[in-house]
Amino acid sequence: MKVLVLNSGSSSIKFQLFRNDDWTVLASGSVTRIGEPEALMRCRWADAEGTQQSLEDCAAIPDHQQGLQRIAEALAQTGALADTAELLAVGHRVVHGGEAFHAPTLVDDDIIEVIRQVIPLAPLHNPANLDGILVARKLFPTIPQVAVFDTAFHQTMPRTAYRYAIPDFLYREHGVRRYGFHGTSHHYVGRRAAQLLGKPFEHCNLITLHLGNGASATAIREGSSVDTSMGMTPLEGLVMGTRSGDIDPAVPFYLSKHLGLDNDTLEGLLNRQSGLLGLCGDNDLREIQRRAEAGDEAAELALGVTAHRLKKYIGAYLAELGRTDALVFTGGIGENSAELRARACAGLETLGIRIDAAANTAASQQERAVSHAESPIQVLVIPTNEELQIAREAVEAVS
Fold first, then answer.
1. Residue 121: what pLDDT?
2. Which residue, 67, 122, 223, 394, could crosslink 146 as a Cys pair with Cβ 3.0–4.6 Å?
3. For residues 130 and 113, is the Cβ–Cβ distance under 8 A?
4. Is 297 annotated as a binding residue?
5. Are strands 12-19 and 2-8 parallel, antiparallel or unpaired?
6. Does residue 14 have a known ligand-binding role?
């Protein structure tokens, strides 16, 4: 049997098709620019001999229904999914599940209504995620649909970690609390770290760092998330590509009062014009590192602020967890930037974290340890695979 994973955005649908007995990726790709005159369809798959093949075409795709129809046609055309009856489940990424969802969930009409009710907590993401579910139910009416929530892994946080120190009615009546995101990624790399350590996940204490254009840190105690850096929205926490992360909550009031900025402008400023981009005019860490090496002060500042924030969260989570088995880097930046890993861990030797310089800078795309042999806490680099985690959780929900 096979599992189709869909990640539906406002103008795109990404997909991967897995064989669920060995989790081989049979096909993957995307439809982008939905609603534009020429949408782009890309599909990659392996033929019967195992040779990688690709398909790409441009055509008008006015909506998500036709986008998913085009994906189904491509999967049939390539032979990756000749008959939809081969599907065991369709797994959907949903960004926000609020407090309603603690685990992957089989979709029915009631579940769709609950996801719709959570839209105010993620107005930029949940509507598109829901569109993907609705379209898939029409296209594959007999196949179980499973919603997998970015927030679900963090629903094990204690109240002391997820509550804000604001009037209680804001939590009770309006759901204002920490939810956390990137849960699928943190869950995946946490389990992989446990396997590399040779311990059951339920016996592991870990700090996982998902570092990409969006970035978050999570403290995992005995296999469960007990704290995470993102909050009610993905804006809180670490320095990101274009998001500020933690700032004084009074800053927006100050900017509103003295610059006359309205709420929409302030939201755009903090979400799309801040972070690395705001500090040095660039959100591509590779370019920032190149500029810093050439002596660019703004680029050096951006790296320094980012590493400083990372180190603060690592230290806080070491204190929160007590015994810690491993620090795990993942995400495009976490997996590829030896420079940022070194800066984030510099000076933490007395806390049990010691990097091996040669291992850290060695070129590799594989799972690996980059800690010194004498480091009490392992430092691991583990490429994330959120699609595989969604596929696995979809099968678990169906089973």
1. 85
2. 394
3. no
4. no
5. antiparallel
6. yes
Extended strands (E) in 60-194: 87-94, 105-106, 145-149
The reported pLDDT for the residue numbered 49 is 77
Question: Does residue 207 contact residue 321 with C-beta atoms inside 8 Å?
Answer: yes
Q: Is 33 left (phi over 0), alpha (psi -120 to 50) or beta?
A: left
pLDDT of 384 higher than 80: yes
4 is in an annotated binding site: no
Q: What is the mean pLDDT of the chain?
A: 95
3-class DSSP state for residue 206? strand
Are 367 and 61 in contact by the 8 Å Cβ rule? The answer is no
Specify the amino acid at residue 190.
Answer: G
Q: Which are the contacts of 203, defined by CB distance < 8 A and separation ≥ 6?
A: 194, 222, 223
Residue 9 is labelled as binding a ligand: no
**198-250: per-residue pLDDT in tens?**
999 999 999 999 999 999 999 999 999 999 999 999 999 999 999 999 999 99
CB 180 within 8 A of CB 228: yes
Catalytic annotation, residues: 150
**Residue 138 assigned to a binding site:** no
Is 214 annotated in some ligand binding site? Answer: yes
Round to whole Å and give the CA distance between 305 and 359. Answer: 25
pTM here is: 0.94
Asked if 204 and 217 touch (Cβ cutoff 8 Å), the reply is no
As a whole number of angstroms, the distance between CA 129 and CA 390 comes to 14
